[in-house]
């Protein structure tokens, strides 16, 4: 009897260990997804939005991660990311656990490796909002659960999913549209450019002279554009980017951690504030819409555009919740099967 119990116990332990050691799929950026996977995430987000808006209280979704923990490993401040992630975790019955830079030992007397091993051993996934892209890569290398890139200095995939959903809602489609980015070369446009092209949207990026678009992202964008018979360009004249644009997007010019560069940045971006006059002179399409992932500063876009009936900024902000839900279902509940 003792041998039988020992054998069964060993078998159970082996199965659990094997299951935990299987390498999870992570969300790092839009480059790693194909067109169908991105479309599936956007459609999932739209479906969850319909459920939430309808007030449906079916216990099916709320029990998918019941009793599980969702870790929020944040080294940067957040409004939309924190609220949307905690809300999405709660929707599936999970307990969100916020781990700010002052809450844990990471960076004080514990390494990234040790922290990752510990957190991933007790949670169902880790949403990581960090400074360096290398931090995301390190987390992915050592984590036994999915890492969801919730922002790093190179990519912002949750925002890209959100923005494609918002565009699709506003226009009823994505195919055949043109997106104009007027602003800095940063993590938001890196993922948004790829996601837009994967969704059938032409992309024109206008950045000031002296600002460089990321080479790897640019090469991938040109590759996707060529495959899908779309247009991708990087220019230095906002009027060129705005020509026939349907969607006009900008973001902050001064990211967290760059505040001391503000004076020089403002000089470099002179003439880049989005105004009705700029849009009219650039000859954007008559049905143009404006987007901004927030927080917004007035030097980036004036009130006449930001608060106009053409602005989608607050719908866009709300959609972060549904994007987070879609990602949790795809990467955690469905274990990385994005088409399920």
Q: Helix amount, in percent? A: 40-55%
Instruction: Label the overall shape.
Output: globular
For the biggest sheet, the summary is: 5 strands, parallel
CATH architectural group of the largest domain: 3-Layer(aba) Sandwich
Q: Report the CATH topology name of the largest domain.
A: Rossmann fold
Number of helices: 14
Distance between the termini: 43 Å
Q: Specify the CATH homologous superfamily of the largest domain.
A: Aspartate/ornithine carbamoyltransferase
CATH class of the largest domain: Alpha Beta
Order of helices and strands: HHHEHEHEHEHEHEHEHEHHEHH
Helix-strand category: alpha/beta
- Integer count of domains: 2
- Count the E strands: 9
Determine the strand fraction and express it as a percent band: 5-15%
Return Rg in Å.
21 Å
Low-confidence stretches: 1-19
How is the largest sheet built, in terms of strand order? 7-6-5-8-9
């Amino acid at each position: 009897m003792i041998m039988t119990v020992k054998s069964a116990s060993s078998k159970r332990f082996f199965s659990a260990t094997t299951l935990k050691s299987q390498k999870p799929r992570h969300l790092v950026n839009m480059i790693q997804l194909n067109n169908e996977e991105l479309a599936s995430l956007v459609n999932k987000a739209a479906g969850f939005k319909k459920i939430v808006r309808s007030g449906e209280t079916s216990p099916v979704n709320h029990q998918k991660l019941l009793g599980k923990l969702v870790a929020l490993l944040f080294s940067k401040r957040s409004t939309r990311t924190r609220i949307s992630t905690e809300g999405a975790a709660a929707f599936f019955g999970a307990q969100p656990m916020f781990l700010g830079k002052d809450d844990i030992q990471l960076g004080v007397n514990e390494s990234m490796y040790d922290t990752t091993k510990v957190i991933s051993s007790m949670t169902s996934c880790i949403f990581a909002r960090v400074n360096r892209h290398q931090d995301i890569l390190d987390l992915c290398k050592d984590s036994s659960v999915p890492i969801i890139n919730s922002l790093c200095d190179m990519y912002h995939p949750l925002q890209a999913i959100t923005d494609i959903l918002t565009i699709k809602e506003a226009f009823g489609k994505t195919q055949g549209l043109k997106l104009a980015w007027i602003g800095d070369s940063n993590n938001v446009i890196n993922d948004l450019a790829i996601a837009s092209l994967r969704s059938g949207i032409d992309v024109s990026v206008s950045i000031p002279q002296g600002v460089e678009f990321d080479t790897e992202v640019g090469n991938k964008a040109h590759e996707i554009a060529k495959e899908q018979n779309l247009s991708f360009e990087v220019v230095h004249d906002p009027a060129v980017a705005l020509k026939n644009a349907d969607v006009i997007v900008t973001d902050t010019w001064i990211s967290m951690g760059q505040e001391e560069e503000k004076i020089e940045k403002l000089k470099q971006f002179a003439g880049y504030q989005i105004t009705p006059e700029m849009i009219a002179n650039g000859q954007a399409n008559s049905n143009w819409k404006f987007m901004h992932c927030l927080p917004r500063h007035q030097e980036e876009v004036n009130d006449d555009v930001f608060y106009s009936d053409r602005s989608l900024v607050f719908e866009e902000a709300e959609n972060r919740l549904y994007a987070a839900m879609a990602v949790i279902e795809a990467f955690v509940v469905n274990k990385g099967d994005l088409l399920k």
